[in-house]
Amino acid sequence: MIRILHETARWLALEKPPGLVVHPPSPEAMVGRDPAPGAKHAGETLANWLRANVPEITRNFSSDDLRPGIVHRLDTDTSGIILVAKDPETLTALQDQFRARTVEKVYQALVLGDPGERGTLRGSIGRVGEDTRQGVKHLSFSWEKRTPKPAETDFHVIDRFLVRPLGLNQEVGTRLCWLELRPKTGRTHQLRVQLLDAGTPIIGDPMYSTKESREVSKSLGLDRQFLHATSLTFTDPLRQERVVMKSPLAPDLQHVFDSLQG
Q: How far apart (Å, rounded) are the C-alpha atoms in residues 223 and 211?
């Protein structure tokens, strides 16, 4: 269920549940490609929910607009905070902040392995082949302009866990790390791709995974990436004041976290 965290006359911050497509892809983006997840669930999108529940969206945005008021996006199975503008002027102002990288984005993830106490993930991200999968460094072109795009993410470890998942050597514990992630750029699948490239894939991720991470995910009963947008800090375009939105872990992720602590 979508929950409104905060609402003003110009914008609202929502808590997106996992499994919800933000918006369907444009027809142009689908030329020559297999249907993407958004195309398969065109009736179950955040965009449609906004038109049905926020009168300003229908009033201020064209019916042809596939992303009415949507400032940024989250992957279908990533939960957490998403920002929506109620009018085109506010949309432009907020998107300008994302482009200028003045918006502070914070995520939490559970990963296989240990990347070290803190650090920065760097590399160029681009599309692999003609599907939606992204990769790091060794690529011929990117999602946007057919050349790999630089990506940067700061991280630090919040906590560490030792588990013995099903199907693995029961004598050897498997290290999991709970990370806070602060992406400085906004590439497609950035956090998921970078963490796999670093050798610490996100638990539950069906696309960017290893055999071991899939085994751990299965043992924890998690079938979507343990990735949640926990905080978003931006400037209110009208008041010109910094705003901090926060979201606790989604219930399914909290359940996994509680089981690890127990």
A: 14
Same domain, 54 and 165: no
Q: Say how many residues make up the chain.
A: 262
Same structural domain, 77 and 109: no
Tokens describing residue 223: 């079938």
DSSP bridge pairs for 142: none
**Which residues partner with 124 through β-bridges?**
150
Q: What is the pLDDT of residue 135?
A: 56
Over residues 217-248, the pLDDT tens digits come to 999 999 999 999 999 999 999 999 999 999 99
Residue 141 covered by a domain: yes
**b or e along 105-133 (b: 16 or more beta carbons within 10 Å of the residue's beta carbon)?**
bbbbbbbbbebeeeeebebbbbbeeeebe
Which position among 75, 77, 205, 252 bears the catalytic label?
A: 75
90 touches 11 (CB < 8 A):
yes
pLDDT in tens, 104-156: 999 999 999 999 999 999 988 887 655 555 555 443 334 445 578 899 999 99
**75 labelled catalytic:** yes
Q: What is the pTM of this model?
A: 0.87
For position 138, what pLDDT does the model report? 40
**In total, how many domains does the chain have?**
2
- φ, ψ for residue 196, nearest 5 deg: -65, -45
Task: Return the CATH number at 31.
Answer: 3.30.2350.10
